[in-house]
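Throughout our pipeline, every protein is held as a single compact record rather than as scattered files. This encoding replaces a full spatial description with a residue-level series of whole-number codes. The remainder of this section carries one protein's record, kept here as part of the documentation.
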Amino acid sequence: MATRLLPENIDFDGAFPALSRRLRIGVVGGGRIAVTQAMAARLSDRWEITAGALSSDPEQAKARGAQWFLPEDRCYSSYQEMAEKESQREDGIDAVMITTPNHVHFEAAEAFLNVGIDVLCDKPLTNVYSEAADLVALTESTGQVFGVCYAMSCFPMIRQAREMVKNGAIGKVVQIHVEFMQDWMIPDDVGEAAHVKWRLDPKKSGSTSCTGDIGTHAAQLATFVSGLDMTDLRAEMHVCGAPKPLEDTVFMMTRYEGNVPGTLMATRIASGNRGGLRLRVFGSEGGIEWDMENAEQLKYNKYGEPDRVLSRGQGHGIYPAVERFVRTGRGFPEGLIEAWANLYTEFAMAVAARKDGVSAPKGWLSYPTVEDGAKGVRFIEASVESNTSGGAWVSCQ
């Protein structure tokens, strides 16, 4: 009988509990984002990386695996082999992180779900909505845990913003504005870099580049904080820099449940912007504003009162449900790796709860799920359809 992972009596309102052992995770894809996620998984102190399919070349797979301190017999040259062999081991992986280019996501996720291994997949979930819907259905039928890497929703002050909106701190939501501005595609030769080539290749990246890669982050963040699903959009895609096969910029008008209007902008041609993800949600009684380049602070105002700036840490207006994501005291900075680690912490709690047969109360975990991933794919397809039709309004439901 397997050892229970979670304690018998869990305080679902307190800090996330320690597990009886670290969970085992495998990695598919050996690029830069895999390294980032591996750091985050380790930082969460809930995972150990025990297997990998880090290259399709057997020798490269072993060489890269050695750099990750993986046993040679757990360095695979395909995700198919990894799924099959790990599912048969007594000490096999509990979950897999999929960090490949987009076109591999569907088949890799399907392979692991089919052998009973939980999945955390990079975004966008898939390149076409029909495949995303298939993954939703497969997840439901297998009962597996499936998370999607919208890590920006795991910053503590984003969780604070979400709690404030949910608790009526700004009244009824009346406008939502979100943007993701970057500048790393300004050089004319940027498309020659290995980590960029696939992002501009429609066979790998799908029908979009900027929209699918960072526009989806913006859309998910707006929905996550406001609690309102995006219902419709009208989009214009542009190539503002050097010629490219896919867009580097997108501008949108958006609508959310209750006919709430908004805007969404994403670009990689905004000089001086590196991590320019900014969210503003305005309500009938006030508003909140967050900027990822100043991620530790959340601007909050009540109409007619002095503006307030909340900072990450314990107490001082921070909700208890947010404090469990805080690692260091106020004034000792945390950043993107810690946000990723929060995602891995919640994912670990979900995997452990499934294995223990624990039914967690609603709201205990808020990690992005396969359903959120599918919404992101539909958002992409609606954006393309709108742009192709000259900026017409298109449903993204």
Summary: The chain has a mean pLDDT of 95. The radius of gyration is 21 Å. The CA atoms of residues 288 and 300 lie 5 Å apart. The chain has twelve helices and 14 strands.
